[in-house]
């Protein structure tokens, strides 16, 4: 099976896989969520896969600090079921300065389902 293609999740965010060779993928991700620190940019993605298992990640420096997002998923039928983690290094203090975010508040996790677009 090949991973190249445009994959859209339930919120309208898009994973566009443009390369798939030797167990590695590359492409871009663009979130549809306004509240995301990644909103407004198309971000380079890299990842690995084996069979129906896949993992990919991307990073960004934002006004609120550095971010990393990683997805891990499993293809079942036409659905790519994933879990993700976002790690946020910084936060804005009341004076709009970036300060270090405490570990217990630095991680967000959830699940998304992607469908390959025709």
TrEMBL record:
Top-level taxonomic group: Bacteria
UniProt entry tagged with the keyword Ligase: no
Entry GO terms, CC: extracellular region
Region forming the signal peptide: none
Record's keyword annotation contains Transmembrane helix: no
Record keywords: Secreted, Signal
InterPro entries referenced in this protein's UniProt entry, alphabetically: Avidin-like_sf (IPR036896), Avidin/str (IPR005468)
Compartmental location: Secreted
Main location: secreted
GO molecular function: biotin binding
One Pfam family recorded for the sequence: Avidin
Protein name stated in the entry: Avidin family protein
């Amino acid at each position: 099976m090949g991973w190249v293609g445009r994959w859209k999740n339930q919120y309208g965010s898009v994973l566009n896989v443009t390369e798939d060779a030797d167990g590695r993928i590359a492409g871009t991700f663009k979130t549809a969520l306004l509240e995301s620190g990644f909103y407004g940019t198309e971000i380079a993605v890299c990842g690995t896969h084996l069979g129906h298992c896949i993992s990919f990640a991307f990073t960004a420096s934002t006004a609120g600090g550095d971010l990393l997002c990683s997805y891990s998923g499993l293809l079942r039928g036409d659905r790519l079921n994933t879990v993700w983690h976002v790690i946020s290094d910084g936060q804005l203090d009341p004076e709009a300065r970036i300060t270090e975010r405490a570990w217990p508040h630095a991680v967000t996790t959830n699940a998304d389902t992607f469908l390959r677009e025709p």
